[in-house]
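name: query_chain
kind: protein
chains: 1
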Amino acid sequence: MHPKNPFIGDYDFDRLVQHSPALGTFVFVNDHGTKTIKFGNQNAVKALNAALLKERYGIVWDIPKGNLCPPIPGRLDYLLHVADLVPKSSMRLLDIGTGANLIYPILGTCHFNWSCTASETDLNSLTHARSLIQKNPKLSPINLRHQKFRNTILEHIIGAEDSFDVVVCNPPFYKNAQEALGSNRRKVKNLGLKETATHNFGGNASELWCKGGEEQFLKKMAQESNRFSTRVHWFTALVSQKDHLKSIKRAINKVNPTEVKVVAMGQGNKKSRFIAWTFR
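structure:
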């Protein structure tokens, strides 16, 4: 985890419950005498996220049932590494596919005081994201944009007058609904969970899958990025499958960037990464 990540240590559940009493329902003492929650339970993770955002940033946060519930420490880690790419205080960030959770603009605004813009195709998710801004005055500078064309990513979002220091993106991982459901079931089994629900980790269709999965999504994003080479300093995106990196890098190199980076990240035993490229 990035050394500047404030969530690098263990959670202080007593303090978190003080700020968000709803979390207390899910806290228990494990066999090692440590207070924790069941991280395979989406409602528990959602309550933890709400408590973390309330305790550290004073943000009132929630997501609709069934929407993707992001891990706050991991999402902040991504932004901290992104900040290392462009070491400046007044960053302009564009989040592609912000979802109902709005997490990157929230963290960008509250943790870094960045200027944040976010796009989303799903109108229900966009409506909920807008409600989060309305509930939290400090989020009022966030600019939301509806991507009306599902076959484009950057097109129709980045305007002629726009200039962004960085684009961030958490692309849909899976190729179809069946692949997403199968992965969810494997997670439940591997974690030894007793919950019978198949959507413990959350996520609606637009958040979890698209035709061709993340590999095709990022190849498309690479193709479009060349048209906005003068309006964006760094294009970045999470890559969930390490095996996809080779083909994604090949697609990016075809548009002739001046630099391509793969940045490794980690939280506990979980390893992750994002790819970044620039034409500057």
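note: The radius of gyration is 18 Å.
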